[in-house]
Write a sequence for this structure.
């Protein structure tokens, strides 16, 4: 009887392990994802990883997205479930930038060009590539190596 109970529990644990590993899929990546990285399956998890590590930048590489510190060391990775959402965010940002350029708006300004009220929309990330107003800025964002915030 005890053996049956133990086998039942082991079977349940095995099924749970298989289910959770399927949820954290990395099929978009061509190289194995290091196990030490924080896995972000949702945008909120990625936002939290950025809040916990403010000196990080999102890099699109190897078919997916890595959150890296300023030395280029990966600290988090986006699971497949998040990659398509990040793809959409970048596509939206690219569209905003293209629309801005079509309107003839100058996207690049210097800090001297900013008035005192414009700074409220500036990127709050300490190491942001955009030290000026970022047209893709939102209240929550992740700075990317593409020089835009999503």
């Amino acid at each position: 009887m005890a053996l049956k109970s133990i086998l039942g529990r082991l079977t349940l644990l095995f099924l749970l392990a298989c289910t959770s590993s399927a949820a954290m899929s990395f099929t978009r990546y061509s190289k194995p994802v290091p196990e030490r990285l924080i896995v972000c399956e949702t945008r909120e998890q990625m936002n939290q990883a950025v809040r916990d590590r403010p000196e990080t930048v999102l890099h699109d590489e190897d078919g997916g997205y890595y959150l890296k510190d300023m030395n280029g060391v990966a600290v988090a990775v986006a699971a497949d479930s998040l990659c398509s959402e990040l793809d959409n965010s970048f596509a939206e940002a690219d569209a905003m930038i293209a629309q801005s350029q079509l309107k003839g708006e100058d996207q690049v300004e210097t800090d001297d060009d900013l008035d005192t009220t414009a700074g409220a929309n500036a990127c709050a990330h300490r190491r942001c590539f955009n030290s000026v107003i970022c047209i893709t800025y939102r209240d929550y964002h992740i700075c990317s190596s593409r020089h835009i915030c999503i």
User: Anything to note?
Assistant: Residues 26-102+121-149 form one domain. Helices lie at 2-23, 43-52, 80-102. The CA atoms of residues 60 and 66 lie 6 Å apart. Strands lie at 38-40, 56-61, 64-69, 74-78.
